[in-house]
Amino acid sequence: MRTVDLATTPLRALNEDLHRQKDGANEASWEVLNPRGAHAVAVGVDAPIAIDVKGSVGYYCAGMNKKAAITVHGSAGPGVAENMMSGKVVIKGDASQYAGATGRGGLLVIEGNASSRCGISMKGIEIVVKGNIGHMSAFMAQSGSLVVLGNAGDALGDSIYEAKLFVRGSVKSLGADCVEKEMRPEHHEALGKLLEKAGLKDVKSSEFKRYGSSRKLYNFNIDNADAY
Amino acid sequence: MCGIVGLFLKDKKLEPQLGAMLSTMLGTMCERGPDSAGFAIYGAPSNGKTKITVQSATPDKDFADLAKLLKTETGVTADIKAKSTHAVVTVASDKADAVTEAIRAKHPSIRIMGVGETIEIYKEVGYPTEVAKQFDLTKMQGSHAIGHTRMATESAVTTLGAHPFSTGPDQCLVHNGSLSNHNSVRRQLKKDGMTFETENDTEVAAAYLTWRMKQGMNLGEALEKTIDDLDGFFNFVVGTKNGFGVVRDPIACKPAVMAETDEYVAFGSEYRALVNLPGFDKARVWEPEPSTVYFWER
Hints:
heterodimer, A: alpha/beta, 2 helices, 10% helix, B: alpha+beta, VC0802-like, seven-stranded antiparallel beta sheet, four-stranded antiparallel beta sheet, globular
């Protein structure tokens, strides 16, 4: 176990050290102490290592993550796991706005609530939120899955492409072109697997409703030409 | 960008440390607003007295004989405490309007920053930690305080463009964001007799709240109305003589974190601003909801 105390080590030294880790790294387990809301903690890691951040972080923690398993034992500021490529990021507390934005792969688990714009423009990432999510979540979401055990705020899935949204609680309102869709066997199966991957064995896929694109915004409708 | 910090004490025992606590918070927000900084601090009221905080680019010249000149001009005895480019002019409350008027009319190089029984406002162009040092913020005491670090977008980097803005007695407002309908709101408020010192969008928000409170609303009610009538991006943190309020616009893209304990309520643009507060590890920490008014009174 490698321990780095941000009270005494500059953030840049930590991130440089993390960037030196490669596949098969000997130091597979890291602990980061005293983040105290610092920005860009463990950004751009590209190695199959485990990083435990003991406290709350500021902007962009675990951004661009590849392969690493990063756990924040606290809350995360805006843009956590932004553009994640692979690996797993777990936030034990709450996440601020645009968690998992533009993420291309990997799994982001938020054990508390996520605020506005969760999963905005997601492109393949899987996001599981145990609490609620705020307004404009999954805006222009292209692919991947967003699973919410609590409630969703206003304008869920506005201008969505092919991402899959599953919400167990209420949805305050759906955004443009986002509609509720039937849960077919393949959706139950995929959601069940994802819940299991997120460690939620007691939650059943049958408790969820599925939302996705009605595909009316895909092409310009010539009948609307007069509106412009 | 801009950074906001705010602190409202519930426990009187912390009052001697208010300035030191706010100063530490302000220092963490330098990167969010390196061009200017300011703060409002609500001290103990002194019976029947009003404080007029003034600023001058040539303080040595302007403040030296100010008491004598005001005595001649208005017949009022004023106590003047100069602090760098600012001075606090203390007068009997029933004479405050006359003295304020005389300063405006006869001392054009002196600007009025704020007026009230408890409020003092200090703001300057410069790096926030330097501005705090310039005015000895760490030694100030009081019940609540609001600070701001500015990265200018809507108007010039000047002392008057720095926050907080004060448009009514013991009222002040700081803002992170930008308003898009400030010109039309300013025109409407001018028709209703409000006056403006700058072209700044934030001053319009401050004046809007003053105007609403003049209509008899309390701070919470006035803040509710900003959600309907002001367009743009905003986090507002507002102080009154005995109140402290927070509101975010419906889009809520400007960051905000709050913390509450039995001893205080604190606001920061980022979590970093709050971590040094006493007892913070036991505080309830949350992100204020969009279109939701939070306010405390004592």
